[in-house]
C-alpha cells in the first residue's frame, strides 16, 4: 500500500428519500455539491 496526500475528500448522504454528494479539494474549495438521483433497484 502506498501512502500520500489526500487531494479530494468526498462526502455522501444516503437517505431513504434523497441522496446528496459533496467533494472538496485539500484547499477547502468545494468542487461538487449536488443532490443525486435516487433509483430503486429492481
Question: What features would you describe in this structure?
Answer:
The chain has 42 residues and is mostly beta strands. Helices cover 0% and strands 50% of the residues. A three-stranded antiparallel sheet has the order 1-2-3, with no helix packed on it. A hairpin with a 4-residue loop joins strand 1 (8-14) and strand 2. The termini are far apart. The mean pLDDT is 88.
Question: Keywords for this structure?
Answer:
42 residues; mainly beta; three-stranded antiparallel beta sheet; elongated
What would a concise description of this structure say?
By secondary structure, the protein is an all-beta fold. Helices cover 0% and strands 50% of the residues. The mean pLDDT is 88.
Average of the residue pLDDT scores = 88
Across the major sheet, the strand order is 1-2-3
From the N-terminal CA to the C-terminal CA, the straight-line distance is: 37 Å
Number of helices: 0
Going by helix content, strand content and strand pairing, the class is mainly beta
Largest sheet: 3 strands, antiparallel
* C-alpha Rg (nearest Å): 14 Å
Beta-strand content bin: over 45%
Element string (H = helix, E = strand): EEE
**CA-based shape:** elongated
What's the helical proportion of residues? under 10%
* Total E-strand runs: 3
- The low-confidence runs, each spanning 5 or more residues with pLDDT under 50, are none
